[in-house]
Each structure stands twice: as structure tokens, then as C-alpha cells.
Write a structure and sequence with these properties.
25% helix; alpha+beta; single chain; three-stranded antiparallel β-sheet; 72 residues
Length: 72
């Protein structure tokens, strides 16, 4: 019923994060859609938000992740 999950850790068994967000031209694209060819065959959704302030907040969040978790 419920899949066990471990929190993200750069040193853990899964050294990647699963964020599905794209920020481009003041637009945030998010949802269950994987940005890969596999998504074409799945029943997935996308949400596109044209909101410059929200896009800036997401961009800042992504920058923080890159700064914090970048592998050497």
C-alpha cells in the first residue's frame, strides 16, 4: 500500500532529487509530467503558470538547491 521512502541525502542510496519544475520566460511548468520521452506514454499532467513573481521564487529555490547539493 505505501512505499517506504528515505529522505534525500547527497550521500544516500538515491543521490538525486525528483523535482518536476521548469522555469522559463517568467513561466513555471510543473505537475506529474516527467521531462523525458517516457512521459509521452503515461497519463501525466502539466500546469503552466505565467506569473513572474512565482517564477522568480522558483528560480531562487532551484539556485539554492544547486548551491547546497552540487556534487564536487
Amino acid at each position: 500500500m505505501a512505499k517506504p521512502s528515505a529522505p534525500y541525502s547527497p550521500d544516500g542510496p538515491h543521490d538525486f532529487m525528483h523535482n518536476k519544475v521548469l522555469v522559463c520566460d517568467h513561466t513555471v511548468a510543473t505537475g506529474s509530467y516527467n521531462f523525458s520521452t517516457n512521459a509521452e506514454g503515461n497519463a501525466e499532467n502539466q500546469l503552466h503558470l505565467h506569473a513572474p513573481e512565482l517564477a522568480n521564487q522558483y528560480a531562487s529555490y532551484i539556485d539554492t538547491l544547486l548551491t547546497t547539493y552540487r556534487h564536487a
